[in-house]
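Batch 3, record 17
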Amino acid sequence: MTPSNLHLPQHLPKPRGFGRTNRTDSWWLQPIVVFIGLSIFIVYSTWAAFQGVNYFYDGGGSSYLSPFYSPVIFGSEGHPWFGARPDMWPTWLPFSPALLILWAPGGFRFTCYYYRGAYYKAFWADPSNCSVGEPRSCYRGENSLPLILQNIHRYFMYIAVIFIGILAYDAWLAMWFTDSDGVEHFGIGVGTIILTINAFLLGGYTFGCHALRHIVGGKFKEISKHKAHKKAYECVTCLNKRHMLFAWTSLIWVGFTDLYIRMCCIGVWTDWRIF
Amino acid sequence: MSDVTFRIWRGEGEESHFEEYKTEVSEGMVVLDAIHDIQAQQAPDLAVRWNCKAGKCGSCSAEINGMPKLMCMTRLSSLDLEQPVSVEPMKTFPLIKDLVTDVKWNYDAKMTIKPFKPRAPEAEDGTWRMAQDDVERAQEFRKCIECFLCQNVCHVLRDHHDHDKYIGPAMFVKAAAFDMHPLDVEDRVLDLKDEQGIGYCNITKCCTKVCPEHITITDNAIIPLKESVVDEFYDPITKLFRIFKPKNPTNEI
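Prediction for the assembled complex:
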């Protein structure tokens, strides 16, 4: 038997119009906050990605790399893997090291189960909030194109896990300061703390991913027979319970980290060395 | 003691509408108490379904001030009593009369889920052995009281009336309860994808929000089932691994 064979309910109440509800609470507040928050981040991160400069701060012997630009595959600042912009890069095509890598964390967030629910509500009003009327009658959900492509999420997750390693390494590099004699010393600056918190929050978000939770243990019916998977599943589940919290704190912090390094580069802010 | 105004949905079919009633309420009352007072004193023909008054039978589902809730578990002290309190029937199912809806479709939809199919018993006495850790995950779903508030709030059913291609969150909880059971060997993934429409869920988490048993429906039932569908149909690497994986006689994943 399938749902299409069932005796379907007749005379269903007519759906309410867009935004209509008998809810008496401030149901509109949550989608508006999400809309504003995500919009600010998208506008700022797009602007920052196209700048192509002021993403690496080495003042005072420090070594701070903006997470929007890490890793630098080709570029003029920081420590690019393969040197400056390749000669074969078309002149008409804007170049920024961030544009080469931001598709991965961007895709990870765009296809994230938490963000999907949040932006379907805030940007598509599908629905705006629970038991609130919708603007359109046609609905295909994630059952067909284009939203069926959201199922690619786990591939973005694999890449995002690699990025966490890279960002943790960036935080480690930010703990080493070069003095005037060219000797490296361990130290902590405000930027070091900001980059370390950034790696921690992004790690909390990435390792709490629903797809990761399924892959490391959720798919096993008898997980007790797989001790390592069981432990990993418990850890991911622990983070997954706070997925929304990490999603927002890491989003805000990664933007702030770029802003901090950018402000230091252009001399608006001073990076204080703690020791 | 104070007088509170209730706007209660009355009537059948197209003729149904809100009617206002004033009744005296006191400390400790829940919405169902007020409805019973109104029924006893002012509207003896008011139809309301209820049974246990303890949040365990799932009978008194309704929409209180627009949010799907159990009437017996909604304390009046949690509502703004300065304003009229609206009480209306669930919007996803056909109205029978007043606050009572016909929820039969849910039981029919449940029948579309392949039943629990245990593997062959491994013990000589024809019984099985399971680890508590393995059973725990499915036990959360056993708390479901079939109030259908999650079905009611799900916009796929509520606003789009896709009852013919989507079975709804309560049924995905049932499917997950079977599917995550350590003894179960049935394969439900194709049904979930093609017949039961799990792809229609767009993870608004409204079902989780309204569940009176606090079952984490979206995170613990629907998303894992969606991921199982990804394993089977949308992940070429997993498919590749499966080709080289030795066959498991117990069908354990």
